[in-house]
Amino acid sequence: MHQGEPAKSPREYWLQRSDRLGYSADGYAEERFRAAEDRLKWWSIRPHVRGRLVLDAGCGTGRFAARLARPGRTVVGVDIVPAFLAQAAGRTKFVVRGSLDRLPFRDDAFDGLVTVAAIQHVMRPHLEVIARELLRVVSPGGEVVSAEYSPVKPVTMDTSYQRMHTLGDWLEGFAVAGATLVNVRGVRYTVHRVGGRAEKHWWWRPALVVALVLDRVLGWLDRGGRRSDIHVMVFQKRS
């Protein structure tokens, strides 16, 4: 994909992006920055994940699938990039290759579904296609938990790591696909970055606690999450 050329499909986008990342979803940031980023996302999605059989859609290298799995809950990870799945297989037991616009599962197969920073980059027409496919594999009444970055600025095509969709885009796309919004929360990533940069110092834990408290206060002031860096959205499949 050349500069200025839009991604033609989610499958094409991620295969090409894996080339740019050197076949490693962990390779674009320093280790401690990635650890802080993962901690932020995990804190944001964990309270909303329910069910005995859960799909991690766009699981990448399996960082979240491994955390989601626990006694009484089986987590299946699916991703299109073979190199990502090879790493995920070392972290979680069940991984499958597949594209988010054509998931290799039967209808109503999962109690719930999680997707983290996996579909934010694709062009708008693909958003509703993917939303329908995610909902297809979730049982009626089951929930899709999605944590995605908001746009850095309005864009019409993906040239590197742009965030493609506003909160309004997400809500409209999933509503058209057949979902009801249950919960939406905004997370301010810049606040938590303070904790990530402090991680090599003795005071990094207090810094993270302060960052988390600040995030809760800012989240209360912006209950709709419209001025947030990350949107954590919970959609329920209509019966």
The amount of helix comes to: 25-40%
Anisotropy-based shape: globular
CATH level 1 name = Alpha Beta
Low-pLDDT parts are 1-7, 22-33, 153-161
Order of helices and strands: HHEHEHEEHEHEHHE
Tally of individual helices: 8
What is the C-alpha radius of gyration, as a whole number of Å? 17 Å
Task: Report what the structure shows.
- The chain has 239 residues and is α/β, with parallel strands linked by helices.
- The chain has a single domain (10-29, 47-187, 225-237), classed as 3-Layer(aba) Sandwich (Rossmann fold), CATH 3.40.50.
- It has helices at residues 10-20, 31-45, 63-68, 82-88, 124-136, 167-177, 189-197, 204-221, and strands at residues 53-57, 74-79, 94-97, 110-116, 138-149, 179-187, 230-237.
- The protein has a 7-stranded mixed sheet, sandwiched between helices.
- Helix 2 (31-45) packs across helix 7.
- It is globular and about 45 Å long.
- Residues 1-7, 22-33 and 153-161 have low confidence and may be disordered.
Q: Which terms would index this structure?
A:
single chain; 239 residues; Rossmann fold; seven-stranded mixed sheet; 8 helices; 7 strands; disordered N terminus
